[in-house]
Amino acid sequence: MEHVLWDKHQHLKQRNNMKVKPFRGIRPPQALAKQVSSRPYDVLNSQEAREEAAGNPMSLYHIIKPEINFEANVDEHDPQVYQKAREQFDLFKKNGWLVQDERDCYYVYAQTMNGRTQYGLVLAAWVDDYMEGRIMKHELTRRDKEEDRMKHVRVNNANVEPVFFAYPHREDLDAIIASVVAGEPEYDFVSDLDGFGHTFWVIKDAETIARITDIIAQIPAMYIADGHHRSAAAALVGNEKKLQNPNHAGDEEYNYFLAVCFPDNQLHIMDYNRVVKDLNGMSPESFLQALQEDFDVQDMGVEIYRPDALHTFSLYLDGRWYKLIAKEGRYDDQDPIGVLDVTISSDLILDKLLGIKDLRSDKRIDFVGGIRGLEELSRRVDSGEMQVALALYPVTMDQLIRIADTGNIMPPKTTWFEPKLRSGLIIHELV
Q1: Total-model pTM
Q2: SS3 for 200?
Q3: Fold (CATH) for 272-393
């Protein structure tokens, strides 16, 4: 079931600006950061987590993928699995693998991928900013996935993994972050699996902390880039605790949740591509013919062709790549949703020709993140698993922000942010 927390016209309501605060982070000692940290829970399955954590009792997977502590036949949603997460969290603290800072701090988390670095501010975001629509979303969430993460937050009484926000960049905040990262980092390592760099600084200076809080209070909204389910779960549990506390004062730690916030001009959205199992009864020839009603179709040969502009698509079929250019009048550039290439391809190819109406539930379609490259598309088609692949030009940050600002929702599987936030570098406890 789809679950939406605000109505379409929420953005029209009276809004205040953002409220954030520093917090006493729980994090690994310097020497253990690489060993403890992990990929986020939702980018790998249980078996992959089991393999990555093998021989490493300090791996955060023991907390965020607690099913790896059981035999493979135990359901990851079994109550004992969630309880195990809490046991592991307590064990990590007892063993000194996770230690809480003595004072409230902000933190800077930098990620480096392919020579490009983005600098995020780690903070505690206000639950009411989410509930009232100042933390803006561009995707629908599923209630079952929300509930899974809510159980994880409840049992640990903590936000073990951060969410990934974007904010309209500000030069004054850029300057503060630049001065922080000129100093010695707390953590600085490269992950073995993907070669991405992770660097982390602690901001303890009271004056700097106050300045950051004041600047962010001038920002009207932030945008969820990645982690819609984690955001919903964190905010809903915080709100739940508020309603359950007869002595609620508003300054309790549960009123806030863990976020890493990046300026919008540093973020990179990758393409998010589609592969389909069959041509809905058509031959390759008749499918290409049918495409010509809405697209200019060019045969690009056997070399990989990557779309290089909006409304241009790449199609892989029968060992050849095709360039598809959507014809005038087939889309609406004035509509924040209608202008998107995911909308155009969903309407004119996936639905109209291939009969795929629900991207969330149709088993004939799968999605491939841009980090895997277009080689993955041809590989899956050439293997016989899929019959056709479609590569899209990436969505821009401006498009994402416009959609969120107008109270709209993107179609499923639209944005792929990379690099993902590393989990385990910092945890926010709700007490």
Answers
A1: 0.90
A2: strand
A3: 3.30.1760
The predicted pLDDT at position 15 comes to 52
Which of 108, 146, 117 has its CA nearest to residue 227?
A: 146
Name the nearest CA neighbour of 427 among 112, 101, 148. 101
Q: Scanning the structure block, which residue is given the tokens 């639209």?
A: 414
Q: Cβ neighbours of residue 266 under 8 Å, at least 6 residues apart?
A: 118, 119, 169
Q: Answer yes or no: are the C-beta atoms of 238 and 254 closer than 8 Å.
A: yes
Closest CA to 117 of 178, 208, 170, 33: 178
Alpha carbon distance 353, 252 (integer Å): 54
Position 4 scores a pLDDT of 36
Domain boundaries defined on the chain: 2-268+419-429, 272-393
Both tokens assigned to 264: 């919008």
Q: Give the model confidence (pLDDT) of 194-205 as tens digits.
A: 999 999 999 999
**Residue 340 and residue 346: Cα distance in Å, rounded?**
10
ω into 22 cis (within 30 of 0): no
Residue 386 predicted with pLDDT over 90: yes
pLDDT single digits (tens) 320-336: 999 999 999 999 989 99
